[in-house]
Amino acid sequence: MKALGIYGGSFDPIHLGHLLLAEAAREELGLEQVIFVPAGQSPLKTHSPLVTGEQRLKLIKLAIGDHPFFTWSDVELKRKPPSYTVDTLQYFRARYPDRELYMLLGQDALCDLERWHRFRDLFQLARLAVGARPGFPPELPPALRQYERPSAHSRGIVFFTNPLIEISSRQIRARLREGRSVRYQLPSLVLAYITEKKLYQTHS
C-alpha cells in the first residue's frame, strides 16, 4: 500500500528544520508524498500566528516548490479554528482510502500528545511517525506505550531519524524582530519573500 505523510503545524514561518524532518521521513519510510498542512490556529498555542494563513501558505509553496514529492493542503485554513489534527486526519482518510497515512511529528511533540483533542482517535486514523533526535533514544511516554504496536485500536508508532538541527520558528521570529540574520535557516525564496513583505519585523 502506498503511503502519504501528513505534516501539520503553524509553520510560522516554515524553516529548514521542518524540511529536513519531512525529507528524512519521506526517504526512511518510503512515503509517496508529504503533505504540508498549515494550521489556522493550533489549540495548544497561546498566541495566534503572527502572519496570515495565506502568507504562511505562500511561504510553504515557496519552500517546497522544487520538490517533486512535497505538496500542501489548505484544509485547516478553510475550517473554523481551532485546528484539530483529528479532523484533518479524518479528511485525508476519506480522501485517500487506499493509502496508508503517516502523521509526522517531532519527538518533542509526544510529551503534549495526551492534551491533543481526541488524541486516542489519531491512532485509528494514521500511523504516528516520530522524528527521533540523534543522541536521544526513541522513547514513548508511559500513557502512549499501549499504542506503540498495530492493533485493533492503533495503527502503531514508528520512529525515524530526524537530523539534529537547532532551528525553531520562535527563534527565527525573534531574530527577524531584532534585525538579526536568519540566512541559512530559511530557504532562500522564503527569506526573500519575508524580507520583501517585511514579515515578522514589527511585532512585539
Task: Provide a short characterization of the protein structure.
This protein has a 6-stranded parallel beta sheet with strand order 3-2-1-4-5-6, with helices on both faces. The protein is built from 7 helices and 6 strands. It is an alpha/beta fold.
Observed structural traits:
204 residues; alpha/beta; Rossmann fold; 6-stranded parallel sheet; 7 helices; 6 strands; globular
How does this model look, in words?
With 204 residues, the protein is of the alpha/beta class. A six-stranded parallel sheet has the order 3-2-1-4-5-6, with helices on both faces. The longest helix has 14 residues. The chain has a single domain, classed as HUPs (Rossmann fold, 3-Layer(aba) Sandwich). The protein has seven helices and six strands. Helix content is 33%, strand content 17%. Helix 1 links the parallel strand 1 and strand 2. The model has no long low-confidence stretch (mean pLDDT 93).
